[in-house]
Amino acid sequence: MIEVMSRAFVKDSDGAEGQELPELRVSPHRNLVTPAGLRQVEATVGQLQTGLSEARATEDRAAIARIQRDLRYWTERLRTAEEIAPSQASGTVRFGSTVALERQGGERVEYQIVGEDEADPAHGKISYVSPIARLLIGASVGDVVTLADRDAKILEIG
After folding, report:
1. 15 contacts 9 by C-beta, under 8 angstroms
2. Is residue 126 domain-shared with residue 79, that is, in the same domain?
């Protein structure tokens, strides 16, 4: 009799058995970054290089494979990074802008429009290719935009 084991008990490949890890997908969009985002990418590359040296020293093949894959991704992101300096008060929402909105009901929310790799929606940082950012880019103070199911008025642009 053959028993079938649940997938919960089967280890997925981590590169240790000589199998190649799938490459991380590089976005087809321009790699726009804020100055802080560029520093973040540079720091990630540095951390991965250190981690690779440590993994090689301990001959951890799985870690070496994983770190090399991640390093290829982040090195490419660093190579293609287009740093966008903060815009001077142009009156419209642009890449790098911080936008204060008031939703119906008086709730205030702020978003900063940043590059894809520095996006952190839980902290108000949204990618410039996100649906919300696309609605906001080009808008001005006083404009009303529809976010999800409610309207929001742009109060400030910084």
Report:
1. no
2. no
Q: Which domain holds residue 63?
A: 28-83
From residue 140, alpha-carbon distances to 15, 17, 26, 83, 105 in Å are 50, 55, 32, 23, 21
pLDDT by residue (tens digit) across 50-86? 999 999 999 999 999 999 999 999 999 999 999 998 8
User: What is the CA 85 to chain-centroid distance, rounded?
Assistant: 18
DSSP labels for 41-70?
HHHHHHHHHHHHHHHHHTT-HHHHHHHHHH
The tokens for 76 are 């490419």
Please count the structural domains in the chain: 2
Residue type, 20: E
